[in-house]
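does this look right to u?? flavin mononucleotide version
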Amino acid sequence: MPSTTASQLLILVGTMTHTAAQVAQAIEMACADLISAIDVRMMDGLDPSVFDTDALYVICTSTHGTGDVPDNAQAFYASLDAQPRYLGHVRFGVIALGDSAQYPQTFANGGRRFDERLRDLGAVRVGELCVLDASVETKPESAGAAWCREWLTQALAPSEAS
Ligand SMILES: Cc1cc2nc3c(=O)[nH]c(=O)nc-3n(C[C@H](O)[C@H](O)[C@H](O)COP(=O)(O)O)c2cc1C
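got this back:
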């Protein structure tokens, strides 16, 4: 896998009660020195054309219902099935929010679903999932920002080989 020339990080946010949005905003502030541009987009109204750039992508989404993606991500998630396209140029990371104590059977499935679907379409995940567990994590913004600093370093490294 060649190194990336990406100069933009695009964070796509699925959220119901704004925790994931706050994590994305924390990343925007904490990682500004690592890449030229960081843009945060809510998933409302998105379709697969959002991947028509050479940006790096982070999917930052919570889980709702019984292991579903949040309401504002439903149409976007469905569009990845309805309008499938090869996403071999896409390199992405995932921040999956959930609650393991309340929802052990479906823990963090929102992010896991996006991860699976994007990889099905040929996109390449860099690194491991960042799982933010509401039952143990009191500062999801700090944890997400710390993860993203390491993730960006890996994603932008010349010899990155994942
Ligand atoms: C109605 C409801 C359903 C939920 N379902 C799940 C679930 O199935 N699995 C899970 O891991 N977390 C579940 N959660 C927990 C949320 O994903 C978690 O609290 C997350 O931090 C919320 O992020 P948000 O504010 O960005 O939506 C649920 C929360 C609510 C309120």
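The chain has one domain: 8-156. idk if thats expected tbh
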